[in-house]
Amino acid sequence: MTSSRNRIDVVTLGCSKNLVDSERLMAMLRRNGFNPRHDPPEGSVPAPVVVINTCGFIGDAKEESVNTILEYAQARTSGRVKHLYVMGCLSERYRDELRAEIPEVDEWYGKFDWNAVVGKLHGDNPAVTPYERIITTPSHHAYVKIAEGCNRFCAFCAIPLITGRFKSRPVEEILREVGELAERGVKEFNIIAQDLSSYGTDIYDGRMALPELIDRMADLPGVEWIRLHYAYPAQFPMEIADVMARRSNVCTYLDIALQHINDKVLANMRRHIDGKATRALLAELRRRVPGIHLRTTLMVGFPGEGEAEFEELLDFVREQRFERMGAFAYCEEDDTYAALHFEDSVPQQVKEERLARLMAVQEEIALESNASKVGRTLRVVIDREDADYYVGRTEWDSPEVDPEVLVKKTCRLSPGEFIEVTVEEALPFELIAVPNA
Known about the structure:
Distance between the termini: 54 Å
Shape: globular
Helix content: 25-40%
Number of helices: 14
Number of strands: 18
Radius of gyration: 22 Å
Largest sheet: 6 strands, parallel
């Protein structure tokens, strides 16, 4: 093949778990003689072959995926793209319907059909490696996916219908991957799964192996920061808090989606936990890990949430003062328990009003949390250089979703460098700091 025919664009939509899937696909493509490019810049000439890795989690994400497919379908029709392939979550769930609606796509694949995609392009049996990846994030940080799927079957969530049952990767395989990435210069590792809390229970006789995994990971040379994403509140492995408190390179940060606090709403959501147990969990985390920053996600407008239930949620947010919080409005997903058993009874306008009220409360809390850091010396990693500042993050800030630290240009800094800074000013979602001499 010529180098031109070897070019392939891989477009990733959705979450960091999808990003890891795209990175694995790109490694397979490269090993089989192709030249993959990730998320081509807007306005650039597309490669002859485009693979879109779609998201199918909620309505907005599905709409973005469909719009992206249609955009490239138009490029396929005009001849700017020769071949168009679609894979991922949306394709996993709706490929038959999509195939009928968008015939410009050459082939539709499921979420984990990397071999089939590469085989189609390669023309015979492609070379396969167990867990090779091309890192698409800045070279100093990477996501590490430690499990696939989910067994929780929350009423609102289609993820188990897309990804299947929970399946952990073995500890040794994960440690080998992290060690190899560290040797390549990765310093910050964001550990992800749909349900971190269940890690290991399926392959280690019911044992919650997350604390052991992270403790051993912290021993690996070159691992500066380990950050945990997407824990589940029910059956939470509390020993991980002790690891976090003991190991200096395990960030005092936990992403744990709570969704709600009202008992009736939690029961309808099938969350396997009530409000009292939720509060006890948060109190114990803060007791065991002083200074921990908690990131959570909450949902408004789930069936059965009246004004009283929503006010309880608002009071909960004011009470807990989450350092990091996101929220979204309930969107009915096909074939979920909620879609089959509950009427989507809260009007969309009410959902949006509640969402705005909730986030307004959180913005005040975020500003106060940031203001408490003024005058403090913090360790940050530099991500990039902008016109007026270097942009970095603390251990409490995950890439893309959390606040950033704008570091004044009083000395020369480089991406991936860890430095100490003194915070001079706080904004709701940014800190302004100066490097320490």
